[in-house]
Guanylate kinase (Bradyrhizobium cajani), 219 residues
Amino acid sequence: MTTGGHGTDGVERRGLMFVLSSPSGAGKTTLSRLLIERMPGLRMSVSATTRPMRPGEVDGRDYLFVDKARFEQMVKGDELLEWATVFDNRYGTPRAPVEAALSAGQDVLFDIDWQGTQQLREKARADVVSVFILPPSASDLEKRLHSRAQDSDEVIRKRMSRASHEMSHWAEYDYIVINHDVDEAFAEVQSILKAERLKRERRTGLVGFVRGLQGQLQG
Ligand SMILES: Nc1nc2c(ncn2[C@@H]2O[C@H](COP(=O)(O)OP(=O)(O)O)[C@@H](O)[C@H]2O)c(=O)[nH]1
Ligand SMILES: Nc1ncnc2c1ncn2[C@@H]1O[C@H](COP(=O)(O)OP(=O)(O)O)[C@@H](O)[C@H]1O
C-alpha cells in the first residue's frame, strides 16, 4: 500500500500505520497528542464521526464532524479505509489523507477501536503496528473520565460499562502499555515506534545502502 520515503538516517523505508486503541479514558488521546508533537515524520489520521463535538474540540483537528447522511455517502463512495459503530455513533478513517501521507514516506497515527484495527490489519498486515493502552485500575479509569469533564454522567456510565468489552480485545494487539504515568507511558509508546521504524523488512533502501558501503570498501 505504501511506496516509501526516507527514514531519519536517510535510508528509504515504507511508512507504517501506528494504531493506538484503549477503553475510553485510558489515555490514547493524550498519548497521541504527545507523539504528534514530539515525533517528526508522524501524522495523525483525523477520523470522521457522527458524534457531537465535545467542548474544546475543533472540527478538522480532532475529528471531521459530519452528519449521518454525509457519513453514509463516505461509506458508499469507498472514501473510508475502515469504519465502525461505537457508542451509537459512527467513526471512520478517510482514505485519501492516509494514502497521501504514506506515499510521502510519513508514518500515520490512528486513534481507532479494535474493529477498525482488525480492518486495517486485514488490508495491510505488514504495515500495521498496534498498541493497546490499559488503565492501571477501574477506579483510575473512572476518575479520568470524570476529570476530563467533557461527558455527562450518563455517557460516562456507558463508557465504563463498555470498557470491559473493549479490553477483551487486548490480545489482538502487538504491544500492551499500562498507562500509570503519562511520561512513562509516552516513553514506552515512543520506544515502540522508534524500534518499529528500524525493522529490516520496512527499510526498502537497505540493499542499496549496503551495496554502496561494500562498493566503498572495495574501491
Ligand atoms: N474504527 C474506528 N474507531 C474510531 C475512529 N475514530 C475514533 N474511534 C474510536 O471510537 C471510540 C470513541 O471515541 P471518542 O468518542 O473520541 O471517545 P474516546 O474514547 O474518549 O476517545 C474510541 O475507541 C476511538 O478509538 C475511527 O475512525 N474508526
Ligand atoms: N497517566 C495518566 N494519569 C492521570 N491522568 C491521565 C493519564 N493519562 C491521561 N489522563 C487524563 O485522563 C483523561 C482521559 O484521557 P484521554 O487521553 O482523553 O483518554 P482516551 O482518549 O483514551 O479516551 C484526560 O483528562 C487525561 O488528561
Q: What stands out?
A: The longest helix spans residues 182-197. The chain has eight helices and eleven strands.
